[in-house]
């Protein structure tokens, strides 16, 4: 059984985006944005495990066509998000019109990797059993976003992570934003929240703070990572996923925490400057770090 350096596991979504001007259909999800971002770095063994309905197999074919190693598990449906925006772009109504089947431990038994990044979109995508099983083979990375979203009758509701106190014991890397850290810990100070999450078992806590940069805590030291000012803000969708996959790429390559954080931050800046997934290369990221204005 081949051991990959980095494996992302997650559903690819079909996103329906409705604005007063248009209705657009596009693929999305953590698995989609992470895979497209990391494919530009050819010095890493990366694989994607996804589960999609028959209607989205064309997206899998496109990923394979650009060189991404993909295992596509069968699912009755793909995840189907509908986002309706009013004239105010902050006014959004979100529904889930279809859900994909959750991942199971037995489906993932033959996948071997140094780091497993679980790209959860909804609270029931990955059971506690899956996290435990995978943690026996490699390090677990999680973006908390999906664990805090529950679907009832197509509508999306915020929720707390049901098994968080047990699950976090098995998680090495956890990425949260300001809102998510507060939901999980009840604490509004990033330093206090990071300490609490570490006490609960997380080895490296990544707290993203938007234009204020990010904070990474490894149980001993806090690393303050700047945000890099973008030339223009075009599309923020997938920025969190880009940050996480950039960080994991650096860490699995043997890079230290602070340098990995800066690399991840620069990747996010380059992503936000253009529509769609990150499509730069390592030289672009280094250039951004060296020349862009730092924001704290």
From TrEMBL:
Residues 16-279 form the Carbohydrate kinase PfkB domain. The keyword Kinase applies. Pfam families: PfkB (PF00294). InterPro entries: PfkB_dom, PPi-dep_kinase, Ribokinase-like. One of its GO terms (molecular function) is kinase activity. The keyword Protein biosynthesis does not apply. Gene3D superfamilies: 3.40.1190.20. Keywords: Kinase, Transferase. This is Carbohydrate kinase PfkB domain-containing protein.
């Amino acid at each position: 059984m081949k051991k990959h350096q980095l494996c992302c596991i997650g559903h690819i979504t079909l996103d329906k985006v409705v604005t007063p001007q248009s209705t657009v259909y596009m693929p999305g999800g953590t698995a989609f944005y992470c895979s497209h971002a990391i494919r530009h770095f050819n010095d890493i063994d990366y694989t994607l495990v996804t589960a999609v309905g028959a209607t989205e197999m064309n997206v899998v074919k496109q990923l394979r066509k650009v060189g991404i190693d993909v295992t596509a598990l069968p699912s009755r449906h793909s995840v189907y998000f509908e986002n309706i925006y009013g004239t105010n772009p902050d006014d959004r109504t979100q529904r889930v019109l279809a859900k994909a089947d959750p991942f199971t431990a037995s489906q993932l038994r033959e996948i071997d990797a140094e780091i497993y990044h679980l790209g959860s979109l909804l609270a029931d995508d990955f059971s506690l059993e899956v996290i435990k099983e995978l943690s026996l083979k490699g390090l677990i990375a999680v973006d908390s976003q999906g664990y805090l979203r529950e679907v009832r009758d197509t509508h999306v509701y915020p929720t707390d992570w049901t098994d968080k106190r047990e699950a976090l014991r098995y998680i090495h890397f956890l990425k949260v934003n300001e809102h998510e850290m507060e939901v999980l810990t009840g604490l509004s100070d990033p330093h206090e929240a990071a300490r609490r999450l570490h006490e609960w078992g997380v080895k490296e806590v990544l707290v993203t703070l938007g234009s204020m940069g990010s904070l990474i805590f490894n149980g001993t030291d806090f690393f303050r990572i700047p945000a890099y000012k973008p030339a223009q803000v075009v599309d923020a969708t997938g920025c969190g996923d880009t940050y996480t996959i950039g960080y994991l790429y650096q860490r699995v390559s043997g890079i230290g925490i602070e340098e990995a954080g800066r690399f991840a931050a620069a990747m996010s800046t380059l992503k936000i400057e253009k529509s769609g997934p990150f499509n730069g290369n390592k030289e672009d990221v280094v250039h951004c770090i060296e020349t862009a204005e730092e924001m704290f």
